[in-house]
Amino acid sequence: MISTLGAFVTKEIRHILRDRQTLTILLLMPLVQVVLFGYALRSDVRDVRLAIVDPSPDYATLELRNRFQAARRFKIVATERSISRIEPLFRKSKIDLVVSLDPDFAAHIEAGEPARVFIAVDASDPNTGSTMQAYARAVIAEYEQDLGAKGASAVRIAPEVRMRFNPTLESVNLFIPGLIALVLTLVSALMTAISLSREKERGTLEILLVSPLRPWQIIVGKVLPYLALAFANALTALLAAWLIFDVPFRGSVTLLLVECIIYSMVSLAIGVLVATLTATQRVAMLVALLATMLPSTLLSGMVFPLASMPRILQVLSNVVPAKWFIVVARGIMLKGVGLEHLWKETLVLTGMTMAFMIIAVRSFKARVA
Amino acid sequence: MTAPAAQPAELAIVAHDLTRRFGNFTAVDHITFDVKAGEVFGFLGANGAGKTTAIKMLTGLLAPSEGDARVAGLDLKTETEQIRQRIGYMSQRFSLYEDLTVLENIALYGGIYGLTDKQIADRSAAMLSTLGLTDEMVAKLPLGWKQKLSFSVALLHEPAIVFLDEPTGGVDPITRRQFWEMIYAAAARGTTVFVTTHYMDEAEYCDRISIMVDGRIATMGTPLELKEQWNVPSIDELFVRLARPT
Questions:
Q1: Collapsing DSSP states into helix, strand and coil, what is residue B170?
Q2: Mean pLDDT across the stretch A230-235?
Q3: Which residue from A minimizes the CA distance to B81?
């Protein structure tokens, strides 16, 4: 029994190792994806070109200016006494953001009167615009808070914006868990579906089924090597996230890797199921892509927040394994929580794995009997 | 191992009213026949006559809708697992792995059938020298060699019965001849050969043949008997007469 399975797994590993091109792509994919998505798909904005209008510099305005100077996101490109000097630059898109301070800023603060700050943003791209504005507000709010602590009454500015767990507003931190899900889905579901349906298409599956090899052994033999590959991919993606983007790992890395394996198994089971239900490699590939990649990117909360989706999509997202995995991965990486908070999601993923595996083996048997 | 109502030991396959339906279509319609041990049995029929469906039932790939059969002395319905160990199968399509080498393919099937490493090594070496092959990628072999290799691999675990589904399709006449020499050699070693073909000259090489028409066995016997019985000069002519009744 063991040697039978062993011979089959050996053969699968040979297939994988022999197809150098595919293997290279599979191994490099997590790295490329993390780097590309990490840099390209971020919604935060860097190097905001800032102009400050300070008609009467005093200690308070200088302090505020210093704070902008110190904030990594801003690059102060102009400091003027009058807004009229700034306007042409703004129109020519040399400046993204203008922070204009009231005259007698410090005097207003000391008198307990509102010291006004006007913020003008280049909102030609509305999303970027509102993001930049939020950054500026954050800097001012912090200053306001520090002043408040010293007993001076407030500079009248922004409503409080709280950014818990992601204080620096790094969107890459939010993407990485989703990316890992995506990579694991791709390798696990897609590759198993292709590899199993290839046997079907070539007719080799018939020979295997006539042999003493049991259906479950064929499935396990197909799944094991890809599980190893998926694990390697998860490691690569995590390492890239950590080394290149400084994504934090606040929780247990071991737990995260275990969850990665559970999630891979769900995807592998889906891949097997797809292969049993389709006739050719090509169809299997398309179905696997549609059934896994699309929901994993769109309905998982990876890119688009689930909370802002219509009710029906929110309900539907519950059957998407990636949704649960992303909650788990974000919890572990960003919040540093453990199994005591994530047992429900873990249970759902484990349940999905078992359900899909049983359905896959059943339908595999039904198709060949 | 008690086998009530088992066939005499010299019968390799006994089929009784074996039937398979797909919806309303009856692909195999109550066929009854037997194959003696060590015999080369030709299972003839036009495309779509039901040959492949019958083979799939006998090899356990398809469950019969009706009827029963004993293969290698074992019950097709209840002793499927034991049957698998005792039969070899070569399908219509070339079914070794092209991206593996000859030896890797042999090692795979040897392992699946539970041969020891030593058995695998010995039989691989013997196979390479008999076929005159070196260990290279299967993809690089010409079709004729591939078919001969497939056949040898189907015999690797020394099955009692080997099922060959149109093994010589698309192969040149010289290779076909060599292939039949291999079939005779296997039969001489005691292996029962169950072969489907639609080359009628090959039918003449078989010990006994049956001709299937529309899911039924239209006639069965040795090639000589059948030619006398139907008064035809060749099996080819008999086949045409049965397959196109006008």
A1: coil
A2: 90
A3: A212
Look up the CATH number of the domain holding residue A67. 3.40.1710.10
Ranking A138-142, A349-353, B48-52, B95-99 by mean pLDDT, the lowest is A138-142
pLDDT of residue A70: 86
Q: What distance in Å separates the CA atoms of residue B56 and residue B58, rounded to the nearest whole number?
A: 5
User: Cβ of A4 and B84 within 8 Å?
Assistant: no
Which residues span the domain enclosing A306? 2-41+170-368
**Tokens coding B97:** 């792995």
**Predicted pLDDT of residue A79:** 87
* Cβ separation A18–B113 shorter than 8 A: no
Q: pLDDT digits over A70-105, tens only?
A: 888 888 888 888 888 887 787 777 788 888 887 888
Chain A: residue whose CA lies nearest to B97: A204
**How many separate domains does chain A show?**
2
Closest CA to A137 of A122, A124, A120: A120
Q: Is position A264 within any domain?
A: yes
Note which residues in 190-209 of chain A have CB less than 8 A from chain B. Answer: 202-204, 206-209
Give the 3-state secondary structure percentages of chain A, helix then strand then coil, rounded to 5. Answer: 70, 5, 25
- B84 and A369 within 8 Å at the Cβ level: the answer is no
> Do both A123 and A174 map to the same domain?
no
CA distance to partner chain A, nearest, from residue B15 (Å)? 18
* Beta-carbon separation of A11 and B100 below 8 A: yes
Q: Is the domain of A27 the same as that of A55?
A: no
Contact B84 A7 (CB under 8 A): no
- The per-residue pLDDT for B200 is 84
CB A308, CB A138: distance < 8 Å: no
Q: Does the residue A156 lie in any domain?
A: no
**Residues A308, A190: Cα–Cα separation, whole Å:** 29
Residue with the bigger pLDDT between B61 and A149: it is: B61
Mean pLDDT over A25-32 rounds to 85
- Beta-carbon-side half-sphere exposure of residue B198 (alpha carbons within 13 Å): 15
Q: How many CB atoms lie within 10 A of CB A310?
A: 8
Chain A contact set for B94 (CB, 8 A): 203
| DSSP 8-state assignment for residue A157 | -
Same domain for A120 and A224, yes or no, is: no
State phi, psi for A156 to the nearest 5 degrees: -85, 105
- Domains of chain B in start order, with CATH, are 38-60+86-243 (3.40.50.300)
How far away is chain A from the Cα of B82, in angstroms, using its nearest Cα?
Answer: 8
B91: nearest CB among A19, A207, A212: A207
**Predicted pLDDT at A167:** 46
Question: Which among B60, B63, B107 is the nearest to A210, CB-wise?
Answer: B60
Chain B residues within 8 A of A212 when measuring between CB atoms: 81, 84-85, 112-114
On whether any CB of chain B is under 8 Å from the CB of A365, the answer is no
